[in-house]
């Protein structure tokens, strides 16, 4: 064999394996994918207010495992599990003390389609197919991300204050890949785990409303009868929140005694009380002359008992005062 023939034979031996690696067809283990999930951090919330919405992402990367490869078309699905809450609708976060806070994860910004998992009755979404580029003496790769839309729904009156979490460690990707065409499904043979942490803190919070106290039309304040009336203060506090309702002395108090003002600066004395017998003054010193309670997430009305005692009758006209209601919690 001449030297020239030997050189040609060596070239064939070197080139044929390289050509063999690039033959078209399905590469069973030619692609590997990984994923990470950002946190669904709802922050500090008031479960009595409106829906609390946040957005997170799942970031993924798929790469060739061969040094010399053809482009691969990939179909990928992202399953988000139920985590420690153990249920899908609704998903649950826990404070570790037996209390739960409802939340949900959706595939759309309108928050109408629940994000499921291959391990639940609700199927996971199939992401738009993509191509991982091939390479020669390099590893082709493709990276992308998908938004995850979270919501803590309003109206959870039973939620107590505290920190809540669900680590959702049972989340995973499934994917399939082919050289010549886009896979019709994500398959089930290629699985990679990731985690999304859902967290929220329920803070102490209260809302307050009040109705007017109208003593009506009075002709003679020197009569022997007191003139009584009632109104109400409505308080709604997060479950477990202790609160105190205080009433100030109004805008026209004289020596700590409430008065309504009318024409020409004339006044009518009146009082506000915590009891129907009108013996317990209602003031604004917490723990002394306030009305105390503990919230359960629902609104509760407390009666304000008013009285205009016998006194001299001023000029005819409208008399009024404004009381500030303060809820301390």
UniProtKB/TrEMBL annotation:
<protein>
    <recommendedName>
        <fullName>Spore coat protein U/FanG domain-containing protein</fullName>
    </recommendedName>
</protein>
<dbReference type="InterPro" id="IPR007893">
    <property type="entry name" value="Spore_coat_U/FanG"/>
</dbReference>
<dbReference type="Pfam" id="PF05229">
    <property type="entry name" value="SCPU"/>
</dbReference>
<feature type="domain" description="Spore coat protein U/FanG">
    <location>
        <begin position="28"/>
        <end position="167"/>
    </location>
</feature>
<feature type="domain" description="Spore coat protein U/FanG">
    <location>
        <begin position="194"/>
        <end position="326"/>
    </location>
</feature>
<dbReference type="InterPro" id="IPR053167">
    <property type="entry name" value="Spore_coat_component"/>
</dbReference>
């Amino acid at each position: 064999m001449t030297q020239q023939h030997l050189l040609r034979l060596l070239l064939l031996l070197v080139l044929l394996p390289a050509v063999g690696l690039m033959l078209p067809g399905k590469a069973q283990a030619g692609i590997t994918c990984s994923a990470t999930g950002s946190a669904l951090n709802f922050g500090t919330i008031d479960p009595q207010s409106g829906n609390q919405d946040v957005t997170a992402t799942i970031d993924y990367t798929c790469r060739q495992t061969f040094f010399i490869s053809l482009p691969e078309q990939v179909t990928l699905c992202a399953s988000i599990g139920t985590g420690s809450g153990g249920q899908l609708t609704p998903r649950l976060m826990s404070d570790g003390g037996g209390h739960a806070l409802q939340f949900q994860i959706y595939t759309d910004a309108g928050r109408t389609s629940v994000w499921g998992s291959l391990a639940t009755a609700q199927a996971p979404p199939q992401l738009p197919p993509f191509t991982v580029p091939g390479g020669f003496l390099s590893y082709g790769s493709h990276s992308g991300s998908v938004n995850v839309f979270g919501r803590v729904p309003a109206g959870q009156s039973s939620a107590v204050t505290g920190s809540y979490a669900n680590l959702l460690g049972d989340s995973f990707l499934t994917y399939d890949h082919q050289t010549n065409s886009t896979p019709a499904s994500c398959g089930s043979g290629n699985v990679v785990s990731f985690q999304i942490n859902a967290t929220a803190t329920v803070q102490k919070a209260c809302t307050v409303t009040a109705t007017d106290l109208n003593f009506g039309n009075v002709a003679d304040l020197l009569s022997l009868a007191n003139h009584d009336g009632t109104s109400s203060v409505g308080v709604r506090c997060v479950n477990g929140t202790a609160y105190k309702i205080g009433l100030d002395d109004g805008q026209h108090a004289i020596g700590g005694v409430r008065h309504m003002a009318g024409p020409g600066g004339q006044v009518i004395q009146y009082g506000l009380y915590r009891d129907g017998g009108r013996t317990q003054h209602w003031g604004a010193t917490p723990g002394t002359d306030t009305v105390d309670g503990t919230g359960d997430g629902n609104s509760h009305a407390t009666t304000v008992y008013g009285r205009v005692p016998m006194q001299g009758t001023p000029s005819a006209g409208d008399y009024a005062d404004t009381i500030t209601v303060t809820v301390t919690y």
